[in-house]
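Fold it.
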Amino acid sequence: MNAMRRSLGKVVAVLLLTAAPLGAQDNGSPDEGGMITSLGQPSWTNPYGGISGGGYYENQASDFTAYLSAGIRKDLLSPVMAVAAIQLEGYGGVRGGEADGGLRALFSIPFIRLGFGADWSFKDGSIPFLMRLAIPFRRGGIITRGGQMTVDWLPARSSFNVGFNFPIGSRWAGKTRPGPMKFPVSPDRPTLRAVEYAQPALEPALANVRETSYWVNRLTVPYFDQTGRRRDQAVASFTEDIQGLQARLASSDPLFGGSHTAAAELQAYHAEVARAFSIALSGEDMPFGSATSEGEAVAQMARAVLLEEVLFPYDRLLGVHKKKDTTDDLAFTAMEVLTAWAEESPEVPADRILAV
């Protein structure tokens, strides 16, 4: 019996000492230059460790219990469904000042956080019924990634234990479930200086930029997810949108060189962005479609800043429920970055920085 206790203690100790994640080191987030790694499918087998404490009250006893444990969970069906799994674990510790340990076997239903099984104790040889409740309490787990609070109840022994289980060697456990379910698009808005500036020649170009950007969005990513309390309301809203697209495509404009196709809208958008920066740099009005080389250079930089500071950060949140679904804060950051570049760039005269 003593040899069994020593062997069981060694097994539990080795498993607990290997509790540190075995996965490769993170190489940084994508926005810091890190590589994007495939998560793959959840593992069917998941080792874990644990620590618990409680009380033992059988036959009017009032003993304190403290255990270390280690085990493995095997899903019986797809781990994505989390509907059925078996767990085998060993434990060792003290009960009422004496050494105690044993083995547990459970059938668990992970998605409702319950498990049922039996507990064999080498101290008394009994195998009573065991019920376990395992709750992470928050997304991503508690204390460590994937950590859960456990409550074990053994009615035949009048015993209960409250503890903490943590995954062993599971690289993604808890990491793919960040705590906040709503993500702010940009948590910090930079402080910007109040600017009072007007240049009438810029207004038509900026109006064209707003108009063409709106239609580039409408024509390249039509919004068809119409809603309504009744089907006829949804169909009517959808029909109205389609008719608006048809009317825009059928119209023509000499400035566009023909009809308002998606390609023409995109070309006009880029041309007007370059014209707006050219006007801002020169202080002079320019006809539609014309731009200076300096204006083209600043427009190219503005597009790069837009890509890095607005589009990439927003697109990385694809599928995430956003706390405030807007790019306003990202645009403020992009404005600050472009202003800093303009202040150092030889392309932008000092007296035209405010206009840019």
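The two ends are 83 Å apart (CA to CA).
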